[in-house]
Write a structure and sequence with these properties.
Blueprint (H helix, E strand, L loop, with lengths): L24 H13 L3 H14 L4 H14 L2 H13 L4 H14 L3 H6 L1 H4 L4 H17 L3 H14 L4 H13 L3 H14 L4 H13 L3 H14 L4 H13 L3 H14 L4 H13 L3 H13 L5 H13 L3 H11 L8 H12 L18 H17 L2 H11 L6 H13 L5 H11 L4 H13 L3 H14 L5 H12 L3 H14 L4 H13 L3 H14 L4 H11 L2 H13 L4 H13 L3 H10 L8 H13 L3 H14 L5 H12 L3 H14 L4 H13 L3 H11 L6 H14 L3 H14 L3 H13 L3 H14 L4 H11 L4 H14 L4 H13 L3 H14 L4 H13 L3 H15 L4 H13 L3 H10 L5 H13 L1
Helix pairs in contact: 1-2, 2-3, 3-4, 3-5, 4-5, 5-8, 8-9, 8-10, 9-10, 10-11, 10-12, 11-12, 12-13, 13-14, 14-15, 14-16, 15-16, 16-17, 16-18, 17-18, 18-19, 18-20, 19-20, 21-22, 21-23, 23-24, 24-25, 25-26, 26-27, 27-28, 27-29, 28-29, 29-30, 29-31, 30-31, 31-32, 31-33, 32-33, 33-34, 33-35, ...
């Protein structure tokens, strides 16, 4: 958390009215104190200044004047007087805490810290007062340890002291512990509702947590108490702007500009407010003024460029937007603005986008936007298409325009498209296509009442057409009222014989009723009637699913090889018949077709997966990602493939590339987070977590991510409640294992066992859970461990850990035959793992095969390069069994044991020698 500094602070000069000299310092001080008791601040300032004129070194006058300035929020003026008061030996217990705050307000953090020694002799309350500001200055100076020491000292002086709590609040905020900070501030303000530093911090916390309404309230209260604070006026204006209170934000910006004409942040506020009101001329003016003062904020450049764009000032728009475009997401509106400015300026070689920000005010523009949206959908850029529609949507009196917008929205799974279709029908009651789309959209959304209403209307308005009866049949099929569906379809086909939709619905009705003979009869009729219709072909194959049906599809494709959809239909049918090579050949024949649909890539992938060709799966995913960079599926699948193969580095590279096209995509960020955690990249995980913590997704997942980070950091106690939350909401095997590891790390083995055993009630065949559970049983219940491991190898005969551990357990029980069986199996599966080889050698030694035991014991030593003490001891044991005592002596003399078990074995072997 970055603390706000006073670099933006405004100084307001106070006009001092000259007064006649008083007779004495004492009378001026007396008058000043009297005015202060009556809250007459200006009068008291005048009296104190007069006192100082009489006695320039009067410490009390300096102190009182500095105190007034500090209470007004004028840090610079307060600092001058309080330093003089200290110089003239005013009471340290009074001046030092206030001087520290004045230093804070003027960003003199080093000076605050320099007061530390002098403050150490103060009484508890005054020292706590100082320590609060020392904590803040240490944090702003990035001296975290100094800050923590300061907080500890303040706490030791009195935990309930408001300044001790303030010091702790500063530290909590620096660690982004917002709830804890808020609770501390509430306690402080319950003690002293006018504690200005707490109010300032409360505003900052609210800004950090995006509670801009509360931030504005806090900053207002601060400003009421300290009216000369320049920075809080800016903070308040910013909070008001962010909370949507543009008018009030502008009021404070105007107030600031009345005092300081060229204050850049105030011009920034004015620019943002004007832009929100679409007053682009004013927005441009204020943005340019702020930028001319080197206030180069990213959002300000965007406002300057966008305002110039709407004003058709192409040069200025290009100037501003070109400086920020590299930092913009792919789908940002300003990218399209820049493309238009480049087009207008003739900078064709700079155009990096093809979509401009058309407002759709004309029918031509509306049609263009629709066509561009369709194009974006074809390319897989669904988000782009959605945003293009959203930012250009407008009230329209054109039914066609409304219908296009509605259909596009429905294609994007946006249910508000129904409203657009209703608007189209209201504009043109005879717009049958719009009503048709609305009816089937309602049916899709299970709005049976609306769909039925439209069907009934059609039957009444168009009694000679089949549409109303077809729709009524579709409704009946959805409700599984097949008798009604058949009756409606009979009427439909009587009105319009052989209408394909009606016949297809008849076939669907028969198939849903599992009437095989009727389904075949209807499918045969359809294929003879429309042998090249893709829907008919799909249904026909769905009924028969055999070579004969595939031949019908291939005939249709041969008659029209340019139709990609037919090729995909044939390939899909081939795969259902397990003709993967034939499907692969067909798909390869259309691989060079432009703009291949998503279904093509899905089928190619499915074919290679069924053939267990991992290399081709990877190659296809890479080709898909390159050909359709806006498709998110290949990014996810390719990253998952690399991660499953243990190549987390490549998986992260794929995710990063995907984020170039899908900026801030939550799904990709969640996958990125899990891969970082799986690869134990703690620092990177923590950085990404800061972003995800503010994202809108399930809190249990957030807790789980933080729990995994804590688990990697071996902060087991803190990890447990977070991983428990994750497991309770998502009780998967992996989450059970995370929680169990945390319990094990926290020395709560019984709870780890409880978690794992309970999960096996949910899924008795989860091998990883059983393996982990057996590993825990190894400590004190070998019988249980053996039982679990035996169960694991029965279900997972290639589980190396289970075979290896069973070999050891049986060896310890003297059951050498069973031990040898599992040791041999483990060695076959993983001859490169040192512990597996060592176990095999020990079992062979127990069976009396000393020569073989020595061979594999030597291999285990080579794998570990002599760095494993247990394996070295086992090797020495094998050497002794093979009468190679001198070599065993050499080995034993070089071994340094670290555990009691190792020590005992070494002594035993030496005794044998």
């Amino acid at each position: 958390m970055k603390f706000v500094k006073a670099s933006l602070c405004l100084s307001v000069a106070l006009a001092i009215t000259a007064c006649s000299e008083p007779a004495s310092v004492e009378s001026h001080l007396k008058s000043a104190k009297s005015y202060l008791s009556q809250n007459k601040t200006n009068e008291s300032i005048i009296e104190l200044k007069n006192a100082i004129r009489v006695d320039n070194k009067n410490a009390e006058a300096r102190f009182l004047l500095g105190q007034i300035y500090l209470n007004l929020g004028d840090g610079a003026a307060a600092l001058k007087e309080l330093e003089r008061a200290q110089q003239y030996n005013y009471m340290a217990n009074k001046v030092l805490p206030l001087l520290a705050r004045a230093y804070v307000l003027t960003e003199s953090d080093a000076d605050v810290l320099a007061l530390s020694e002098a403050a150490s002799v103060l009484a508890s309350d005054e020292q706590s007062h100082y320590l609060a500001y020392k904590t803040l200055s240490a944090l702003r100076s990035e001296q975290v340890e100094v800050a923590k020491e300061s907080v500890d000292l303040a706490q030791s002086l009195g935990e309930e002291n408001k300044y001790s709590m303030l010091a702790l609040a500063y530290l909590q905020l620096s660690e982004e512990n917002y709830d804890e900070t808020t609770a501390l501030l509430a306690k402080i303000l319950s003690i002293d509702a006018k504690q200005v530093d707490a109010l300032m911090l409360q505003g900052q916390v609210s800004m950090a947590t995006k509670d801009y309404q509360q931030a504005a309230i806090s900053f207002k209260e601060f400003l009421n108490l300290q009216p000369r604070s320049g920075i809080v006026q800016l903070l308040l204006a910013d909070a008001l702007l962010k909370s949507g209170q543009d008018d009030e934000a502008e009021k404070y910006a105007d107030k600031i500009l009345a005092q300081v004409e060229n204050q850049p942040f105030a011009h920034y506020i004015k620019a943002m407010v004007a832009f929100n009101r679409k007053e682009f001329d004013k927005a441009s003016e204020h943005a340019e003024l702020a930028l001319s003062s080197n206030f180069n904020q990213f959002n300000l450049k965007l406002v300057a460029g966008a305002s110039a764009f709407y004003l058709k000032n192409w040069e200025r728009s290009h100037y501003h937007l070109n400086t920020v475009v590299e930092y913009l997401p792919q789908d940002h509106q300003a990218r399209r603005m820049l493309a238009v400015t480049q087009l207008e300026l003739g900078l064709l070689d700079e155009i990096n986008a093809t979509i401009g920000d058309f407002n759709g005010e004309t029918e031509a523009d509306a049609q263009f936007l629709s066509s561009m949206s369709y194009k974006l959908l074809e390319l897989g850029a669904t988000d782009e298409a959605k945003k293009l529609l959203a930012q250009n949507e407008r009230a329209t009196t054109n039914a066609g325009d409304s219908a296009r917008q509605g259909i596009l929205k429905l294609m994007m799974n946006d249910p508000s498209g129904i409203q657009n279709l209703e608007e189209a029908i209201a504009l043109d009651p005879g717009f049958i296509e719009a009503e048709l789309a609305l009816a089937y959209a309602a049916l899709q959304n299970n709005d049976i009442e609306k769909a039925t209403s439209i069907a009934t209307k059609w039957q009444k308005d168009y009694p000679e057409k089949s549409g109303g009866y077809n729709l009524m049949a579709s409704i009946a099929i959805k409700e599984q009222k097949y008798i009604e569906a058949e009756a409606a379809l009979k009427q439909s086909l009587a009105l319009e014989p052989d209408n394909i939709f009606g016949l297809l619905e008849q076939l669907r009705s028969a198939r849903q009723q599992n009437n095989d003979s009727l389904s075949k009869q209807r499918a045969d009729y359809l294929i003879n009637l429309a042998p090249n219709n893709n829907k008919v072909l799909r249904q026909y194959f769905g009924v028969y699913q055999n070579e004969m049906a595939l031949e019908k599809l291939q005939q249709a494709y041969q008659a029209n090889k340019v139709e990609t959809d037919k090729a995909l239909l044939v390939a899909e049918a081939m795969m259902s018949l397990e003709k993967y090579k034939e499907a692969e050949t067909l798909l390869s024949s259309i691989a060079t077709t432009d703009n291949l649909p998503k279904r093509y890539w899905q089928l190619v992938l499915f074919s290679y997966k069924q053939q267990n060709d991992v290399a081709k799966v990877q190659s296809t995913l890479e080709q898909w990602s390159k050909a359709s960079p806006y498709h998110i599926e290949p990014v996810i699948l390719l990253a998952d493939l690399h991660a499953s193969l243990g190549d987390n580095s490549r998986a992260l590279s794929v995710i990063k590339r995907g984020l170039d096209y899908h900026k801030d995509n939550l799904v990709l960020q969640l996958i990125q987070m899990q891969i970082l955690l799986n690869s134990k990249q703690i620092a990177e995980s923590k950085v990404l977590y800061e972003t995800l913590a503010t994202a809108d997704f399930n809190d249990a997942l957030k807790q789980g991510f933080l729990g995994q980070i804590l688990l990697l950091e071996e902060s087991y106690e803190q990890a447990i409640p977070k991983l428990l939350t994750l497991y309770e909401v998502y009780p998967s095997s992996q989450n059970a294992m995370y929680l169990a590891r945390a319990y094990l790390g926290d020395k709560q083995d019984s709870k780890a066992v409880e978690v794992l055993e309970n999960y096996l009630v949910i899924d008795p065949n989860e091998g990883r859970i059983k393996t982990m559970l057996a590993g825990i049983y190894l400590e004190d219940d070998t019988t249980k461990a053996i039982g679990v491991y035996e169960d694991v190898v029965n279900n997972q005969p290639k589980n190396v850990i289970a075979h290896n551990n069973l070999a050891w357990l049986y060896l310890e029980q003297g059951k050498t035959e069973q031990a040898l069986q599992h040791a041999e199996q483990a060695f076959k599966l993983a001859p490169q793992i040192a512990n597996v080889v060592d176990t095999y050698a020990q079992v062979l030694l127990a069976t009396g095969d000393n020569r073989a035991a020595l061979k594999y014991a030597s291999q285990a030593v080579e794998i570990t390069k002599g760095q494993d003490v247990d394996i070295q001891l086992n090797y020495a044991e094998a050497l002794i069994a093979n009468s190679r005592s001198n070599e065993a002596k050499d080995i034993l003399s070089q071994i340094t044991t670290t555990t009691d078990v190792q020590k005992q074995k070494k002594e035993k072997l030496i005794t044998q020698l």
